[in-house]
Structure formats: structure tokens, C-alpha cells
Amino acid sequence: MRIPHTLRSLELTDEITAELTVLVGFDQDLAAEATRTSNRIRGLLTQFHPSLERVLGPRLDHQAVTWLLERYGSPAALRKAGRRRLVELIRPKAPRMAQRLIDDVFDALDEQTVIVPGTGTLDIVIPSLAAKNECGLDQYEVRRYTGWTRHITLAMLAHAFLAVMAADAAAKGAAETVPASRPSPWLKFGGSWQLATHPSHALISPSPGHAH
After folding, report:
1. Above 90 in pLDDT, residue 209?
2. What are the residue ranges of helices labelled H in 49-82?
3. Can you spell out the DSSP letters for 83-105?
4. Alpha-carbon distances, residue 67 vs 12, 134, 153, 173 (angstroms)
5. Whether the Cβ atoms of residue 91 and residue 98 lie closer than 8 Å to each other
6. 133-171 pLDDT tens trace
7. Given CA atoms 94, 100, 102, 108 in this order, what sign does their dihedral have?
8. d(C-alpha 73, C-alpha 56), whole Å
9. Taking a C-beta distance cutoff of 8 angstroms, is the pair 140, 31 a contact?
10. 0.85 cut: is pTM over it?
């Protein structure tokens, strides 16, 4: 039975295409969620402590910063923990920048002497957002060069594969919709055209010598 051109059978390539579509969509959702969470953290820090945001905001994609904010989310909590404890806390995540980062944090804390009303709520909100951001970044590996290279390579291969599959499907669809050509029922004899009873049978026109 011939399948209409509007329908097609499922093949292995359909399964691969569906899987790639789901994976790419999931990756895009992770990226969007990580961006929203980071922007929320930066917005809160800008609102309550701009100097601290200038230090930590651009580094929110680093594990050391999210690890720090997950445990000490407010300026008061950071100051109370002290330099030494904070350096030891983030050193496993950032061995070379731990001391410099904490020094920058305390310099930023010293720059602002005014406590903005509502700052205490950061102890609740910032750690929660940082934990959420850390979870998302753990799965979204494009933040690092190795993960970015792997992600871009996979994306390019997926794009090429889908482009080939789309072109193949279009070619198959065009072939199914084009009707098969049939020989014309009209045959030419001498200077005139005659209608044949069957396309495969040639009509034999009587020669003038045999006409009665």
C-alpha cells in the first residue's frame, strides 16, 4: 500500500532528531535560568550594597563566589565570618584567587558605611538564589572553556545532522508529490497526429498504395 505524501513512516533518524531537540531545549532552559538567577543576585546586591556587587557580580559564574554567597549572603554575615575563615572556605574552589577575592570583598565592605533598610533579608534570599545558581551551573557546563568547546561541537554536529535530515525529507517529499510521467496517447504519422488506442501500441497508417 502506498503511503500518501502527507504521511511518512518513523525511522531511526526521527528518534535521534527528537532526542537532540529535547537536549538542546533543556540546555537552553538551564542557560536562561542561570542568567535570571545571576541577574536577581546582582540586582539585590546593587540595591543594598553596590560596592559589594562590583566585586562579586562579574564573578557570579565562578563556583567560589556562589559557594561563598550560599553560606554568607549578607554584608554583615561576611564581615562576621572574617577574612581567614572566608579564604579557607573558598580556597578549594579557587586556590589562586581566594586571598585576592576576599581582600576585595572586605575593601568593598569598608567602602559603604550606611546600612540600607532591608539588608538583613539578604541572609535569607541570597543563599537560596546562590544555591539555585550553583545547581544550574553544575549542569550547564558552557561556563568553562572545556565544556564550552564540547557544547559548541555538539551543537554544530546536531545542526549539521538536522540540516541533512531536513534536506533529505524535502527531497523525498518532492519525489512523492511529483506524478510519474506517462507517454502521450498521441502519435505522429507523416504530417498528422493520431490518437492511439494504447500508448504502447503504434498505429499503422495505411500507405497510399493500399488505400481502397
Report:
1. no
2. 50-56, 63-71, 75-81
3. HHHHHHHHTTT-TTTHHHHHHHH
4. 43, 8, 29, 54
5. yes
6. 776 554 445 555 555 566 667 677 777 777 777 777 777
7. negative
8. 11
9. yes
10. no
For the cut 70, the answer to whether the pLDDT of residue 21 exceeds it is yes
Pair 68, 60: CB distance under 8 Å = no
| Whether the Cβ atoms of residue 199 and residue 184 lie closer than 8 Å to each other | yes
Rounded Cα distance between 110 and 117, Å, is 18
Name the grid cell of 173: 517529499
CA distance 121 to 47: 12
Q: CA 92, CA 62: separation in Å to the nearest integer?
A: 12
Q: When comparing pLDDT for 126 and 177, which is higher?
A: 126
Over the stretch 64-97, which tens digit does the pLDDT of each residue have? 999 999 999 999 999 999 999 999 999 999 999 9
Measured CA to CA, the distance from residue 48 to residue 121 in angstroms comes to: 10
